[in-house]
């Protein structure tokens, strides 16, 4: 896609997901801007922007994935650099927004880190944020600047449809994910079921009940994040015990902290479908894991923002 007046647009990336940035740039028909993002000898983040951004609309593509704090600091310092170089607008394209699970206080003396990150981004000079599948949608309200919150469900649904699975039932892994499950189910024209579980301690989940019937059906579990995959694989085993003939799973953000890949490989999950909002290193790749690209979606969002067109039309 060739943008009109693309001379006014600049794409930059940090070190968290340069491959995705290159895909997006290819979609737009532009090149990733020249910038050095590294470290001084003492470990501090060093950024050098090697081309003029004066009066330009700058899009910085950076997932705040592992190493989370380095990725976040790179983003903040890059924003400060282009702001001081007189960029006209600075959009932070953050496919994966870190600290999103810390969106409220659940006990005394806890931080609300998702709000802190929003404050840091705004203070650094970001004028707009583009992100995907926030763990808690209300994080959009932590910002006093425009936020475009893009869904991963259409990408996942298109791939699942292409597999031509029969007797699908979409399963939400908990009560909080029902809306996401309903969105996928509507696209697949399938019913939904809900796993009811409890967490006796952090990182441990026990399946207590299933709302709905999966007997003889192909179950598709959907979540926004797969971290250690403990809840996911336990839920998949429970669905099999309850009569599901096959179990698939999908999510937007494959955090896949150890021992997630081992758990998935040893589970009854036929395939875990994820996107490349977070890049997977070789040790996290598996024949059971299918990676879909979000570059066309993010690229189209950039086209619409740059061209002052509606971004919400992407959701139709």
From TrEMBL:
One Gene Ontology MF term: ribose phosphate diphosphokinase activity
Needed co-factor(s): Mg(2+)
Signal peptide stretch: none
Pfam families per the UniProt record, alphabetical: Pribosyl_synth (PF14572), Pribosyltran_N (PF13793)
Catalytic activity: D-ribose 5-phosphate + ATP = 5-phospho-alpha-D-ribose 1-diphosphate + AMP + H(+)
Residues annotated as domain Ribose-phosphate pyrophosphokinase N-terminal: 10-125
Entry EC number(s): 2.7.6.1
Keywords: ATP-binding, Kinase, Magnesium, Metal-binding, Nucleotide biosynthesis, Nucleotide-binding, Transferase
One of the record's GO cellular component terms: ribose phosphate diphosphokinase complex
Example GO BP: ribonucleoside monophosphate biosynthetic process
Protein name, entry field: ribose-phosphate diphosphokinase
Native organism: bioreactor metagenome
């Amino acid at each position: 896609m060739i943008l009109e007046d693309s001379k006014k647009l600049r794409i930059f990336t940090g070190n968290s997901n340069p491959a995705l940035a290159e895909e997006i740039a290819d979609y737009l028909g532009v090149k990733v801007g020249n910038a050095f993002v590294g470290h001084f000898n003492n470990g501090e983040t060093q950024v050098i922007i090697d081309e003029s951004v004066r009066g330009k609309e700058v899009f910085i593509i950076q997932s705040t994935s592992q190493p989370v704090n380095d990725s976040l600091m790179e983003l903040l310092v890059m924003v400060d650099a282009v702001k001081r170089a007189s960029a006209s607008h600075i959009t932070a394209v953050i496919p994966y927004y870190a600290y999103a699970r810390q969106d409220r206080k659940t006990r005394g003396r806890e931080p609300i880190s998702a709000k802190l990150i929003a404050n840091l981004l705004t203070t650094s000079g970001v004028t707009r944020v583009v992100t995907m599948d926030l763990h808690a949608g209300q994080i959009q309200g932590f910002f006093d600047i425009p936020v475009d919150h893009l869904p991963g469900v259409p990408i996942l649904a298109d791939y699942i449809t292409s597999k031509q699975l029969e007797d699908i039932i979409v399963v939400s892994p908990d009560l909080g994910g029902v809306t996401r499950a309903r969105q996928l189910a509507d696209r697949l024209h399938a019913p939904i079921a809900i796993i009811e579980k409890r967490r006796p301690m952090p990182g441990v989940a026990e399946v207590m009940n299933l709302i709905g019937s999966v007997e003889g059906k192909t179950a598709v579990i959907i979540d926004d994040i797969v971290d250690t995959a403990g809840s996911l694989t336990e839920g998949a085993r429970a669905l099999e015990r309850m009569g599901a003939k096959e179990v698939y799973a999908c999510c937007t953000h494959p955090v896949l902290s150890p021992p997630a890949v081992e758990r998935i490989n040893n589970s009854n999950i036929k395939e875990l479908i994820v996107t490349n909002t977070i890049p997977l290193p070789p040790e996290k790749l598996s024949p059971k894991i299918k990676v879909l690209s979000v570059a066309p979606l993010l690229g189209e969002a950039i086209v619409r923002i740059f061209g002052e067109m509606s971004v919400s039309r992407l959701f139709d």
